[in-house]
Design a protein that fits this description.
Elements lengths: L1 H18 L26 E2 L6 E5 L6 E2 L2 E2 L16 E2 L1 E3 L15 E6 L18 E2 L5 E4 L2 E6 L4 E7 L3 E7 L3 E9 L11 E8 L4 E8 L6 E9 L5 E6 L21 E4 L2 E9 L4 E9 L3 H11 L5 H16 L2 E4 L3 H14 L4 E2 L6 E3 L5 E3 L6 E2 L1 E2 H4 L3 H8 L1 H17 L8 E3 L2 E2 L8 H11 L6 H12 L7 H7 L10 H21 L3 H10 L7 E2 L4 E2 L27 H4 L7 H7 L2 H14 L18 E2 L2 E2 L19 H14 L15 H11 L1 E2 L7 E4 L6 E5 L5 E7 L7 E7 L2 E2 L4 E3 H5 L2 E8 L5
Parallel strand pairs: 36-40
Antiparallel strand pairs: 1-2, 2-6, 3-4, 5-8, 7-13, 9-10, 10-11, 11-12, 12-20, 13-19, 14-15, 14-18, 15-16, 16-20, 17-19, 21-35, 22-25, 23-24, 26-27, 27-28, 29-30, 31-32, 33-34, 34-39, 35-36, 37-38, 37-40
Helix pairs in contact: 4-17, 6-7, 7-8, 8-9, 8-11, 9-11, 11-12
Length: about 775
């Protein structure tokens, strides 16, 4: 009952606020609550485009570990916030958007009144700690702005942010016992030993500096901060919850718990006390740095040198309008506008800036470096984002994408493994997922001409990465032409993804006339054939003796040679050569019915019970849209004699998997990949094989759209006779000339022009 009541109330509140803004304000269409319920794993808080600070509410403190084992419930809190929760613990400054694993949640602030409580309490008994009940009726989320009423403390909390600084505004009641708590123990995917050290320094009665070191997904991570209050505190203190610290040195001569200007320990919670009048606003500026507290102070002074909260909000929302304005779309319904511009918003949340205003950043080697001529970025969820997010950037953010590649190459230079990033954040490689998909991002940018750096240097880094034998079965792959399942798990997925990445390397080598590299990696790109079992028509794990694994279930996701997918979905993963894959599977006559059945069959729950990334909401038949390996699959009909089925499947997926509600995403948004799929598909084209320099055409859901290219030109899409029923394309014209194949070349898009779809309710066979 609670959910059914609150959801319409929230949507009414959101629409009311939209109507009060100018019609050309695209921020009004963004609903950051989308994806905050169930599997989306997005956060609703305040951040700037690609911002280093993600200032957002956290709704629980569930630990990563319980009784010595992984606590499955923690998975809900990858972004710190779950829409169903009735309490808020506080507001922390770093979050991932849409990931399936997590970290961060640094520096949680919580304003309270009454008796000081330094423990967070529990959801069942929020009054036992500093957390507070709240209602979605009193909650508001926009780009660069979040507000909520903390019912238990009668405090209105408002948040906004620039790139490197979060700004809080707390409206207090009259109180002689007003507190702002800084919890340095709090974190996402937290456990008792995650903090390796924390430190605070009271510079004066309004300024605090310090740092936090953690060992989590990133095993060596240090974040520095500077925190400034708009009003002096009357007293302060802390409690150290550390256990078993044998040696404390001669600091024991001091009472460090109250009004002592230094605090250090593994498990600290600090507090700052105020006296407030009714309706008094206390503001906090909280700046981050990867380098030093001095860097954090410089970031604060550069980005928010004043105390005008509304000015920060307005300026950051102006930046969002500037970024959202890169695509001006006309859509059929209000829900479509919300879905479209929220997806665009989600794609511009990351990768995130990772350097001070001076250009300094912490490198993978744990030394400080100076970015020369580029913005250094972090948060590279490459197994997800190489598919559509980075290709999307090559359309609407090519300069940023080029800087992201420079950041990857800096990572390579600093890597003792001589490897490009796999999944990296905050000066750490966390090795999550498989493949070496930096090479896909690099290849796509080089082939599309959006990377103008040293392409030969980039190719050398790609080749070195692909030859690093001790990485994840690569020695076996290079020796045998496949990863053997008895030597290295998820072997089929790895073989298929390595083969695609190798094809990407070959494309760069051919363009640069590096023929030896081209031949080597063109041959490696054929390795997908080594795990295809033609006797059953599926990819299948092969053992080191050259035989296929006997016990095999094409529907199961568990111990079958695949990661986050089954043989049904992964057998369709040869994006570099769909025509050869279709031929191997029996040609049009056999392949089309096979692909049809993917979308229409029923996948019983037992077959994905062991994969927390996959739930029923993200599945259509046996097609798993809520995870990435099959994101290109609906477009494979374009390589058959029935391309109209791509058109109907794409429009079906758009409608079923994306809704303007908190539970509107059928799976993790995965740092914008799910949203990038939506945007490409809504515009009518999709990069099936990044690195190919072309897009496969589908069925646009927009009525028309204009993409503002960085070269000053515009590319327009128009869908004539567009409607919910008219999902089929009768013909497509590029600048008035009819296309004979369902393909759009990036070179044509980059020149500017117009792509016109003629729509109908009947397929053109």
């Amino acid at each position: 009952m609670r959910k059914l009541f609150l959801l319409p109330a929230f949507l009414f509140f959101a629409f009311a606020s939209f109507s009060q803004k100018p019609k050309n304000d695209l921020v009004r269409w963004v609903n950051p609550m989308i994806g905050t319920h169930k599997m989306g794993h997005t956060y609703p808080g305040a951040t700037a485009p690609f911002g280093m600070v993600q200032l957002s509410p956290d709704t629980d403190t569930i630990p990563y570990e319980m009784n010595g084992a992984y606590n499955k419930d923690v998975y809900k809190y990858c972004a710190g916030y779950q829409y169903d929760d009735p309490t808020i613990v506080g507001f922390s400054h770093t979050h991932f958007s849409g990931t399936g694993h997590s970290d961060l949640g640094d520096f949680l602030l919580m304003p309270t009144t009454g008796k000081l409580q330094l423990n967070p309490g529990t959801e069942a008994r929020p009054e036992s700690g500093y957390r507070s009940k709240f209602s979605h009726n009193n909650e508001r989320a926009e780009p660069a702005y979040y507000s909520v009423k903390l019912d238990d403390h009668n405090i209105q909390a408002e948040l906004t942010a620039t790139n490197r600084v979060g700004m809080h505004q707390y409206t207090f009641p009259k109180s002689d016992e007003a507190h702002i708590i800084l919890d340095l123990m709090h974190g996402i995917y937290n456990y008792e030993d995650k903090n390796t050290w924390t430190f605070l320094r009271i510079e004066n009665d309004t300024l605090i500096t310090g740092y936090r070191q953690t060992n989590g997904w990133a095993r060596t991570r240090t974040v520095y901060f500077a925190m400034s209050f708009s009003k002096p505190f009357v007293q302060y203190g802390n409690k150290d919850y550390s256990k078993g610290q044998v040696y404390k040195g001669f600091w024991r001569k001091f009472d460090q718990s109250k009004n002592f200007p230094e605090m250090a320990g593994k498990q600290l919670r600090a507090y700052f006390d105020f006296k407030t009048t009714e309706g008094e606003k206390i503001k906090v500026k909280f700046a981050l740095s990867p380098v030093s507290t001095q860097g954090a102070l410089a970031n604060m002074r550069a980005e928010i040198p004043h105390w005008d909260f509304e000015r920060v909000k307005d300026e950051s929302q102006a930046l969002w309008n500037q970024e959202l304005g890169k695509v001006r779309a006309s859509l059929p319904t209000k829900d479509d506008y919300i879905n479209f511009y929220t997806a665009l918003y989600h794609t511009f949340l990351g990768p995130t800036t990772y350097m001070d205003v001076t250009g300094q950043y912490r490198g993978l080697d744990q030394n400080n470096h100076q970015a020369q001529g580029f913005t250094n970025y972090t948060t590279f969820s490459l197994w997800d984002t190489y598919r559509a997010l980075h290709p999307w950037f090559n359309v609407v953010q090519p300069k940023r994408n080029a800087d992201m590649i420079e950041s990857m190459l800096a990572h390579y230079d600093q890597s003792v493994h001589n490897m490009l990033p796999v999944w990296s954040h905050h000066a750490n490689e966390n090795w999550c997922m498989i493949g070496y998909h930096s090479v896909s991002v690099i290849a796509d940018a080089i082939m599309k001409g959006t990377y103008t750096g040293d392409a030969n240097r980039a190719l050398d880094a790609c080749v070195a990465t692909a030859r690093q034998g001790y990485y994840d079965g690569l020695n076996f792959y290079m020796q045998l032409g496949y990863v053997p399942e008895d030597k290295n798990g998820s072997s089929v997925s790895k073989t298929l993804e390595y083969a695609y990445d190798d094809w990407c390397i070959a494309q760069i080598a051919q363009k640069l006339n590096r023929q030896d590299i081209y031949r080597e990696f063109s041959q490696r790109a054929q390795n997908w054939k080594n795990v295809y079992d033609k006797s059953i028509g599926y990819m299948r794990p092969k053992l080191s003796n050259g035989t296929f694994k006997k016990e095999f279930d094409v529907l199961s996701t568990h111990n079958q040679g695949f990661i986050e997918g089954n043989a049904w979905n992964y057998s369709l993963y040869v994006p570099q050569d769909p025509a050869a894959m279709i031929q191997a599977m029996g040609g049009n006559k056999r392949f089309v019915p096979h692909l049809d059945s993917l979308f229409t069959m029923h996948l019983p729950d037992e077959f994905f019970a062991h994969t927390e990334d996959i739930t029923r909401e993200g599945i259509i038949g046996n097609y798993v849209h809520g995870n990435e390996p099959a994101h290109h699959v609906a477009y494979l009909y374009n390589w058959t004699d029935q391309p109209w089925k791509t058109q109907e499947r794409v429009r079906m997926i758009l409608k079923k998997q994306y809704q303007p509600t908190p539970d509107g995403l059928g799976g993790n948004d995965d740092c914008g990949q799910m949203s990038a799929w939506y945007l490409f598909s809504s515009l009518g084209f999709y990069p099936v094989a990044p690195g190919a320099g072309e897009y496969s055409l589908g069925s646009p859901a927009v009525k028309d759209a204009t993409i503002q290219l960085e070269n000053g030109k515009t590319f327009e899409i128009e869908a004539k006779n567009q409607s919910e029923k008219n999902v089929y394309v009768q013909k497509v014209e590029l600048n008035g000339k009819t296309l004979t194949q369902p393909v759009l070349h990036h070179t044509d898009l980059a020149k500017g022009g117009k792509l016109t779809f003629y729509m109908s309710s009947k397929p053109k066979k």
